[in-house]
Amino acid sequence: MSLKAPPPSRSPWQLFLGAAHRLRASWYQDRAAKLPRPVISVGNLSWGGAGKTPMVAAVAAHLRESGFKVAILSRGYGRRDENEVRIVSDGEGPLLGPRLAGDEPVLLAGMLPGVAVVVGAERARAGRHALERIHPPPDVFLLDDGFSHLRLQRDLDILVFPARDPFAGGRLPPGGRLREPLASAVRADAVVLTGTPPDEASRAGDELARALRPHGYRGPGFASVTVVEEPRRFPGGDLPETVRALLVSGIAQPEAFAASVRQLGVELADHLAFGDHHAYGDPSLAKIEKAYHRCGANMVLVTGKDRVKLQGRLQLPLTEVPIRAAPTPRFFEWLDERLAEIRRESGPKP
Q1: CA nearest 160: which of 286, 289, 50?
Q2: Which end of the chain is more exposed for a tag (fewer CB within 10 A), N or C?
């Protein structure tokens, strides 16, 4: 793997947008709210499909196994009443469905026993709510998709880049796919290349960090491999001997998901690709049922975040393909060292 980031754009429009992002970051630098526990953010610079959710799950599981009480703070994209703060899980599994909590928070709540999940547009308010309502209170907060959420101070910023398209063309809209310029990586404490091929994981992180040097980044780089696990039926049971699946996805990168499924040796009869965070109303359910019977499938195969929205609503055999992130051990060593430093510097809990 050889990574090379596009050079900084000299377009007047790109320069103007870049200056606006720098001004916004500077404005919040001394105005952001602070929580009385360490805050670790996982975010990205491009629009959608960067592997943030699996990375958040991997970091949360590692912290939990290290003895920390973890609370994930998420916006809960696409849910009703986004301004309301809601506890999705107190560590005992989902308490709310995706309409009230958002698809990714419900998925995280189900896959991370012992980890609390709280949603709220204002993540500082959500964190305070967690400290007041969850017992025992969290030791550390994990900010999901938090890089651009500057209203809350964070102690560590982890910035992820998808291996299939790490730099999203290097430009902001309308001509590019970046949410912030690559120069914003200077705010990150670490960068991680997600979806790295296993045979390239040992060097890909360093290559990512070097590729970002012309844009001002000076921190370490790491890699994370995507692990596609064996399909699991819901609510349970064995898979048929011969699988012929209708693939249904409402995610940012449907073709990448389809490619992962084919690597498992699954025969795909058809693929219905909806928009990212699709809500699956009645017309969509009818479309899925019609496609299922037309193509002769014997199961509906979905991602985890689609499964939480379809389970119990779709009267067809539903099967999830679990996908998880596996960061290299070097990343977790770095994380443990930095978190220990932060805790020493912050002193006893208030």
Answers
A1: 50
A2: C
Does residue 291 contact residue 310 with C-beta atoms inside 8 Å? no
pLDDT over 80 (residue 212):
yes
pLDDT of residue 158 exceeding 90, the answer is yes
Both 156 and 82 in one domain: the answer is yes
DSSP string for 168-223: GGG--TTTS-BSS-GGGGGG-SEEEEET--GGGHHHHHHHHHHHTGGGT--S-EEE
Which position has the token pair 């880049």? 161
Verify that 309 and 217 share a domain, yes or no: no
Using CA atoms of 139, 140, 144, 146 in order, give the dihedral in degrees to the nearest 10.
140
Residue range of the domain that includes 199: 16-227+326-345
Q: Please report, for residues 39, 77, 254, the alpha-carbon distance to residue 69 in angstroms, rounded to integers and kept in the order given.
A: 12, 24, 34
Q: At what angle do helices 329-346 and 52-65 cross, to 10 degrees?
A: 60
In this model, does residue 55 exceed pLDDT 90?
A: yes
pLDDT tens figures, 232-269: 998 888 888 888 999 999 998 899 889 889 888 889 99
Q: Report CA torsion sign: 324, 77, 259, 262.
A: positive
Give, in order, the Cα–Cα distances in Å from 26 to each of 23, 126, 156, 251: 5, 24, 17, 33
Could you tell me how far CA 105 lies from the centroid of its own chain?
Answer: 10
Domain count, the chain: 2
Using the Cα atoms of residue 246, residue 251, residue 255 and residue 259 in order, give the sign of their dihedral: negative
> Which has the higher per-residue pLDDT, 345 or 287?
287
Confidence band of 348 (pLDDT split at 50, 70, 90): low
Same domain, 267 and 204: no
Evaluate whether residue 21 is within a structural domain.
Answer: yes
pLDDT over 80 (residue 1): no
Are 70 and 159 found together in one domain?
yes
**Mean pLDDT of all residues belonging to the chain:** 93
Does the pTM surpass 0.85? The reply is yes
Beta bridge pairs of residue 325? 226
Give the CATH number of the domain where residue 189 resides.
Answer: 3.40.50
